[in-house]
Design goal:
The protein contains 9 helices and no strands. It is elongated, with a radius of gyration of 22 Å. It has a single domain (2-228), classed as N-utilizing Substance Protein B Homolog, Chain A (Orthogonal Bundle), CATH 1.10.940. Helix content is 67%, strand content 0%. The chain is mostly helical and 239 residues long.
Length: 239
C-alpha cells in the first residue's frame, strides 16, 4: 500500500510536468508520441519541480492573503466602538472582531500553503522511495495508461463532469482526474474506493476544497457507470 501511495504522488507530479505536452493536438497523419518508462531519478526530478512550482505560487498567494487579513483586522479594530474616542496618537484598544467567511478563507489558504511546504520536506524521502522497483513500476503503469488512452480517459471525465471541458479545468485537477480515471478503468485488481480516496486526499493537499469536492463527485459518478463505459482499445499496459 505504501508503494502505491508514493507511486500515485510521483505519477501525479510527473503528469503535472507533462501536462502541456499531453494537451498538444496530434497532427493528421501523426501518431501520439510513445511513452517511455521513467527512471527513479526522472520521477524524483518531476516531484521536485512540481512541489517547487506549487509551493512558490501558494506561498506568494499566502503572503498576499496574510497582508490583506492584517490590514482588515487593523481597520476593523480601529473602527470598533471601543476605539471611538481614541485620539490619533493614542494606542488602539483590543476589540472583538467578526469572524468573516472571507477572512477565514484567506487563513485556510495560508494553512494549505504551509501544508504544501511540509510536503516539500519529503523530497529526500521521494528520492529514496522512487528507486524501489515496485514504486517505479506502478507509477509508470499509471502514466502509460494515461498516455496511451488519453482520449478515452478525457471522454470519461467530460461525461461525468457536468459539461466541464478537460482543457478548461485547473491543471492540477485535470492531472488528478486523468490519473484516477485511468486507475478506475484499467487497474482491475485495486478497490475503486481506494482509488477515489487517494485522489481526494491528493486534491486536498494540492488543490482547494472546491476542487476536491468536484473531483470526488466526478469520480463517484464515473464509478457508478463503469459497467456502461465502452471498453477501450488498450486495456493492458505494461511498463
Amino acid at each position: 500500500m505504501k508503494a502505491r501511495h508514493v507511486a500515485r504522488e510521483l505519477a501525479l507530479m510527473t503528469l503535472f510536468q507533462l501536462d502541456s505536452q499531453l494537451n498538444e493536438p496530434v497532427k493528421d497523419g501523426q501518431n501520439s508520441p510513445q511513452f517511455d518508462p521513467l527512471s527513479g531519478r526522472d520521477l524524483t526530478l518531476s516531484a521536485v519541480r512540481t512541489l517547487v512550482d506549487q509551493a512558490r505560487e501558494m506561498v506568494q498567494d499566502a503572503a498576499s492573503d496574510l497582508a490583506a487579513v492584517t490590514h482588515q483586522i487593523m481597520d476593523e479594530e480601529a473602527r470598533h466602538s471601543v476605539n471611538a474616542d481614541v485620539g490619533f496618537e493614542d494606542t488602539v484598544m483590543a476589540a472583538p472582531l467578526p469572524n468573516t467567511r472571507q477572512t477565514v478563507e484567506k487563513i485556510e489558504r495560508c494553512l494549505q500553503a504551509a501544508e504544501l511546504l511540509t510536503e516539500a520536506m519529503r523530497i529526500p524521502e521521494f528520492a529514496v522511495l522512487s528507486q524501489y522497483e515496485d514504486v517505479q513500476t506502478f507509477a509508470n503503469r499509471l502514466l502509460k495508461w494515461v498516455h496511451t488512452n488519453l482520449n478515452t480517459i478525457d471522454t470519461t471525465i467530460e461525461t461525468h463532469s457536468k459539461e466541464w471541458r478537460v482543457n478548461r479545468m485547473a491543471r492540477m485537477d485535470r492531472c488528478l482526474l486523468r490519473l484516477a480515471v485511468a486507475e478506475l478503468l484499467y487497474a482491475k485488481n485495486i478497490d475503486p474506493a481506494i482509488t477515489i480516496n487517494e485522489a481526494v486526499d491528493l486534491a486536498k493537499l494540492f488543490s482547494n476544497e472546491e476542487s476536491f469536492r468536484f473531483i470526488n463527485g466526478v469520480l463517484g459518478s464515473a464509478l457508478e457507470s463503469l459497467n456502461v463505459i465502452p471498453e477501450p482499445l488498450n486495456t493492458q499496459a505494461s511498463t
